[in-house]
Amino acid sequence: MVRRAGGLGSWVLGLGSWVLGLGSCSPRLKRMISLRDQRINEKERAKAPAKKKKEDPSAIKEREVPQHPSCLFFQYNTQLGPPYHILVDTNFINFSIKAKLDLVQSMMDCLYAKCIPCITDCVMAEIEKLGQRYRVALRIAKDPRFERLPCMHKGTYADDCLVQRVTQHKCYIVATVDKELKRRIRKIPGVPIMYISRHRYNIERMPDDYGAPRF
Which intervals of the chain are annotated as region Disordered (predicted)? Predict the structure, then answer.
């Protein structure tokens, strides 16, 4: 009986040590160092997220509203008028050549007034990069009847240049057949778009008192 009791006691002691060992093998959660701990560098401490201040609901909120151009006080752009200044892009010149249209004369036939085609440095650089295949377009772009507009911004992307220019100055008409550029121009109020349709120039978003009838 003594042997059995001793065996049972040793078995109980063995079971208890196994339970304790199992508890010691269980994973422990790692403690996070506080941001105020001295072991953290000052640079890392500066990265700590700043506490948001509670907004006072009774305080007056200030917000910046973009200034609306005075030329759009009426239903149409009052800065538009003869002689019309028309910004031309690369595709418009190429499609005019394919349709065998003279740019200046076709513009005057569309608007019934004197037109001054304008070409920016970005558009001119884009035509020059196309090479000898578009030498006719380059020759038309260098026509003395075209007004050259210098670009002071960085980069040579022509679409961004035209969008930025008509956003700042509402006295231009944009001549293009590019769908993406037309979509961006339509978001700018007061800027008409000239395009090619049925082997002639047509105008979009122009007051009815100006130009030829739309088809």
Answer: 41-63
